User: Fold these one by one.
Assistant:
Number 1:
Amino acid sequence: NASMDLAVLGEEVRLVGRVGDDFIGAHLLDELNKKGVDTEHVIRVPGENTTVSVQMISSRGARTLAAKRWGANETLEAGDVPDELIEWADHVHIVAAMCLSGFDGAGSARVFARAHELGKTTSMDLNNPRFDGECFHLFRDALKNCDVFLPSSYEVERAVGLTDMHDIR
């Protein structure tokens, strides 16, 4: 969503990720390309499904996860993000930290450290529907080189157990 939104706003966007070799993956890549997102670095994983989330949105805008099918994107690795792509970028954003089993932890920390070495800005958002209890260790090291951190209050509560807005700051 973020890459498509930025492309629609006129930004040059290159996306890194993994999709399955299914209809959903093909359709997703087609739609991203139509909106101007460069998907050259999205890997199609044979025999895997594409990750799919279904969200229910109330009339007040509150979101509830209705269904989630885990798939290829959870196997993303730091090695899937080539240095030349980080060099090209002005900004590096990690979407859905805590849902990228092969990338969370050391992988995201390495990519953000490299981005900062190259003078790039960084940001990250969370998504943690499968975790109970503290899971701060999954993104702690990436935060050392994260310029903008975008969790929801619900995600902070689930990840580190904080509920008071003054403590969360």
Note: The chain is about 30% helix and 25% strand.
Number 2:
Amino acid sequence: METKIGNKMVSGKLVVSLMIGAALMSLGISPASAAFSDKDAGTRGAQFLKLPVGAKYIGMGEVGTATADDANAIYYNVAGLARLTKKSGEYMFGGLFLKDKVDGESDPGLHWVSFAMPISESIGSVGLALQYFSYGDINKTDIRASKTGTFAPTDLAFNLAY
């Protein structure tokens, strides 16, 4: 089989081998260009929103998009609220395995509270959720790495769903 490229006839084997070579070269280039630098500092916000919620959905590999039919539908798939037949609520705390950086007193982790209820068949369902993430206590340091105190960063998201 031959393919015409421009004014020249080229064999199909050559075209396929060139395409495979280009794909392999791009695989080698991607990891090299993904190196982190100082320019990337502070460019990603709200990463806590990617943390999964709901023990049922976490245990099933986060398949909540297809099966959400309770208060956790607010997080995974809001359309799942349409399948609610009764009130639903959930609280979840997901603790981190690593302890905070100071004295182990604070509990870094994710808190998830959600509530949903059907209003009527014609109106639909409503829900609210609160997602709170605490990073624990972290030491403050100056330019000489001397401890100057502590701080406890947190993130908060409030969700309304209809």
Note: The chain has four helices and eight strands.
Number 3:
Amino acid sequence: ANGDIMIRTLCLLAGFGLFARQGAGLGDATLAANHLLLQLVSFSAFFLDGFAFVAEARVGAAVGARDRALFRRAVRLSSELAVVTAAALAIGLWLGGGTIIGWLTSLPDVAAMAHAYLPWAALYVLLSVAAFQLDGVFIGATGTAQMRNAAVVSLAVFALCAWAGANAWGNYGLWAAMVVFVIARAAALLPYYRRLDAGLARRDTHS
């Protein structure tokens, strides 16, 4: 399990590293602006991680008890709260992110650049909730191999999109690739989620 999680984490770090590298190729101001926006994304992640941690504990208890109803309830309730929080964070970044950027930098060109791409950061936060929740579900269910596989697939998707997007549309394309990255993380886990749910259904039947 530790090996799987390490590979998964390295894939995520590689994705963010590639994002920074591609951004650096677009100029110093773009690199600095992207870094500021990633600080806002990271800050938002602390809130969403809380619901993923709850999902880990509740899903782990449900899977251990082989209780499909409890599993679905844990996923539903934690995800509903996470979605509402992600929406609030995204709206807050969209409306108030410019003020926060002003606190983080005194360089006008960097601030202007960060403000231009702020909606992409807000969109990333909004859509990242599915990946956070599914990570929590699979850690709770000890489905670390599935997380590893999904991370490898999503990294490959991101690398392709980042290269093509940055070359075609500059930083807009790069941020679009980041959004695709977090969507791909969740999409790659969905088939495994269905299998996990179906496996609990079979256990209910046998019991």
Note: The mean pLDDT is 94.
Number 4:
Amino acid sequence: MTIKDIARESGYAVSTVSRALNDHPDVSADAKRKIKAIIAHHGFVPNTNARQLKVQQSRVILILVKGAFNLFFTAILERMQTAIACANYSAEVHYLDEEADEVLIGAQLARERKPLGFIFLGGNVALFQRRFDTIHVPSVLATTVSADLAFPTLSMVGIDDAASGGGACQYLLSKGHRHIGVIGGNPENSYISKLRYQGFQEVFAITGAPHDDSYYQKSSYSMESGYRALQKLIARHPNCTAVFCMSDLIAIGAMRAAHDLGLNVPKDLSILGFDGLSLGQFYTPKLASVRQPQAEIADRSMEILLAQIEKGAPASLTVLDTVLVEGESVLSL
């Protein structure tokens, strides 16, 4: 016997029978008595496992994290998970490689898990342009914003990466540096690296010359990669007096590489990071960094997603401010 059989015999709709089985208050006492009598007569045992799985799936929010070792995402992710739990939903986190196609994976998960919504923590704008129209549930792209994305279910929360990259350049120029190296992701497939470098280049142009691209060293967003990148950059341009690193993890790796090369930070080489991780404040010297508002990114992303899920709110774009935190790793010439 199935719920449909009970509905047919009782004369009530399947949805009413389902609510009665779950003891919902919006089902009348008479209906509950009649349905329970039929259940008792036939010895019907509800499939609890199936029902629980259905409930769990209907309350799940998927979080796709781009880059398994990105410490900047850690605090944001923890805050999001807390907000999801407080709203009585379930969070399911998937860690993706930096080179993975998060939109393709999201589309597959949407079919399999049928989530209420998605949080994409980091993402490639080109991939969203290519195939996000295959995802039809409310979604938020956190830490990345682009005016080139206009989907009715996709909101974005992040910073102005170009302006922040320009601010980093302006800060180093104000300290008297002109031979400035840059370490960041591959601009061809890292949207934020591309924007930060564009902003850097635009401000550097005030020196009267374009920034020499040979002073740009590609790196993954990790300490190990930052370490290797600084070694390559200094081997190519030993005249560098400062380096702008597009993440604090890159910067910390770069500072260790500078030490191993016999360079003192900041006397011989100034290093500026990006993200504002607390880790940088416990390094020697304390890391100067462009701080992103992690808590605000997490909170705004969740507010927007829950408003889309629960109230049918329209998609939106939110741009937050960064703050340059002066540390001990940058020195004036």
Note: The chain is about 45% helix and 15% strand.
